[in-house]
Amino acid sequence: MAKPKEVLVVVDENGEAVEEVFDDTETISIYETMREMLIYLTNIDTPAMDRVIQRRLDLLTATGDRSFFTFDRLNKLCWALGSISGCMA
User: Fold this and answer.
1) Fewest CB within 10 angstroms: 27, 43, 74, 86, which?
2) pTM for the model
3) Environment class of residue 27 by beta-carbon count within 10 Å: exposed (0-12), middle (13-18) or buried (19+)?
């Protein structure tokens, strides 16, 4: 999922998570297109979308293997979840 306007958490040179602010119209356009697509897919097959989300969460939170976790992957999942909030009732 592309990042929405003004939302990005990055790790700085000190290893701390900080917020970075952007205003990029091309990225916003990509985000809006991806958001619409995720809403359509969620409306078509909500249980399948629920399974996809759960698998991603399982991969990110796997206690035995931390190699999959990155802040970038976490941000993308959060943006995707935020974009379909309200569709999974």
Assistant:
1) 86
2) 0.68
3) middle
Q: How far apart are CA 75 and CA 8, in angstroms?
A: 7
For 7, 8, 9, 20, the CA distances from 15, given in Å and listed in that order, are 19, 15, 12, 14
For residue range 7-17, what is the model confidence (pLDDT) as tens digits?
677 888 898 88
Tens of pLDDT, residue by residue over 27-54, are 778 888 999 999 999 999 999 999 999 9
C-alpha gyration radius of the chain? 14
DSSP per residue, 23-61 = --HHHHHHHHHHHHHHHHHHHH-HHHHHHHHHHHHHHHH
According to DSSP, the residues that pair with 17 across neighbouring strands are 11
Task: Give the other-Cβ count within 10 Å of 29's Cβ.
Answer: 11
Phi, psi of 18 (to 5 degrees): -130, 155
